[in-house]
Design goal:
Helices cover 51% and strands 15% of the residues. It is α+β, with helices and mostly antiparallel strands and 392 residues long. The strands form 3 sheets. Strands 1-4-5-8 form a 4-stranded mixed β-sheet. A 4-stranded antiparallel β-sheet has the order 2-3-7-6, covered by helices on one side. The longest helix has 37 residues. The structure holds flavin-adenine dinucleotide.
Length: 392
């Protein structure tokens, strides 16, 4: 089954069943994008299909962590390309949802509809896991700011109209909402192993007005971390979707493929692979849903009601404990999905490593999820630090 909210009802609210039905209905049009003969047209077509299905409304701003996870579980299953475009639309616009001025927020409906596409530009050549090393500089001028620097590995570049750009302003970081057609901006495409729009962004004397700044001058780091925190668990959900697809593909194959006079599915060692895949998949989904539920209980989603916490401000201890749950979900689900997909490739034998096989595409698609939005090592650091400090 592609997606359901029925099997773990304790994690879901009644409206999630309707959302799951809506997501399944949108799936065929999104999946069809991968059949377009021109690969270069697929990123824009995937963005258009997401917009036509109204799915960006689920991430601009996120209606709830569980809704975001349901959407990414489906998208991971049907189209890892669409999944990445969807997630980055949310990441790119979230700083505005968190701290934008009324005029900046007025632009959000165009992103919620898919008429415009956003990017989130944090990483730099010398600032990857170490976000504090960001060197892009914002220099104040009479009219606003001038931005200079380089960003690397920025998703949605090539199809994006605007980016949330993080830059050093004085001693601290600030966030800026930058139209990507400004003079001084160069986008250079990058080609990852996965189907995923990606590019490098060079900013050379890019002038932006005062009202391009998002939030207060020193608020950039907080906005970046809050944005990543809001979306990190959903990376695990996308991984679950990809792993479920791999298991379904593998099941279809081993039931049909006959060797030694019977279907592979009847071989005990093949069944052992399937069992291990099912355990990894279920454990991953449980970790993700637990963290998503905790997110939704902790505080209202932007513009939405809390499900259980009453909307009160979360204390530092509870916050640290929730961060650890999110890190456990991201780490556990992405690593488990990699194992599930690797087993699926193994069960396909030679067919599993042929270019264009679904499991071969999943094998490439899953890999970046263990790297972006905090590598597995960074998630282990968060979890280990919380344990060492005695965070409950
Ligand atoms: C497909 C893809 C899409 C991306 N999209 C975006 C995007 O849209 N916007 C954006 O801003 N960025 C994006 N990124 C960048 C991504 O967030 C970074 O690649 C990631 O944070 C790691 O940074 P890095 O590549 O510089 O690796 P580094 O930070 O240099 O790390 C290299 C290795 O060292 C390990 N390491 C680093 N520090 C430690 C430590 N303290 N302890 C132990 N190990 C450590 C890492 O875990 C990793 O294994 C994307 C990356 C990819 C691959």
């Amino acid at each position: 089954m592609i997606l359901s909210s029925d099997d773990l009802p304790m994690f879901f609210a009644p409206d999630h069943a309707a959302l799951a039905t809506r997501l399944r209905a949108a799936a065929p049009a999104i999946a069809a994008v991968e059949q377009l003969p021109d690969p270069a047209a697929r990123d824009r077509a995937a963005a258009a299909a997401l917009g036509a299905a109204g799915l960006f409304e689920l991430c601009v701003p996120p209606s709830s962590s569980r809704a975001l996870c349901l959407a990414r579980e489906l998208l991971g299953y049907v189209s890892p390309r669409a999944d990445s475009i969807f997630a980055v639309q949310g990441l790119g616009t979230h700083p505005i949802a968190l701290a934008g001025t009324p005029a900046q927020r007025a632009a959000l409906p165009a992103f919620a509809s898919g008429a415009r596409i956003a990017a989130f530009a944090l990483t730099e050549p010398e600032a990857g896991s170490d976000v504090g090393a960001i060197a892009t500089r914002a220099t104040p001028t009479a009219d606003g700011y001038v931005l200079d620097g380089d960003k690397l590995f920025i998703s949605n570049l090539g199809i994006a109209d605007h980016a949330a750009v993080f830059a050093r302003l004085g001693d601290a970081l600030a966030a800026f909402w930058v139209p990507l057609d400004r003079p001084g901006i160069t986008v250079t495409p990058q080609t990852p192993i996965a189907a995923h729009p990606l590019g490098a962004l060079a900013l050379r004397g890019v002038a932006v007005p005062h009202d391009a700044r998002i939030g207060e001058p020193g608020q950039g780091m907080k906005l970046a971390l809050q944005t990543l925190d809001a979306f990190r668990v959903s990376v695990g959900a996308a991984a679950v979707g990809m792993a479920r697809r791999a298991l379904d593909e593998a099941l279809g194959f081993v039931r049909a493929r006959v060797q030694f006079g019977k279907p592979l599915a009847e071989q005990p060692l093949v069944q052992a692979h399937l069992a291990d895949m099912a355990v990894d998949l279920d454990a991953a989904r449980l970790l993700v849903l637990r963290a998503a539920y905790a997110n939704d209980c902790a505080k209202p989603a932007v513009g939405g009601p809390a499900v259980g916490g009453g909307g009160e401000v979360e204390g530092a201890g509870a916050r640290a404990a929730r961060s650890a749950l999110i890190a456990i979900a991201k780490l556990g689900a992405t690593e488990a999905a990699q194992r599930v997909i690797d087993r699926a490739v193994q069960l396909f034998g030679g067919r599993g490593v042929m270019a264009g096989a679904v499991v071969e595409e999943l094998y490439r698609a899953i890999r970046p999820l263990r790297i972006y939005e905090g590598t597995s090592e960074i998630q282990r650091t968060i979890i280990g630090r919380a344990l060492a400090k005695g965070t409950p």
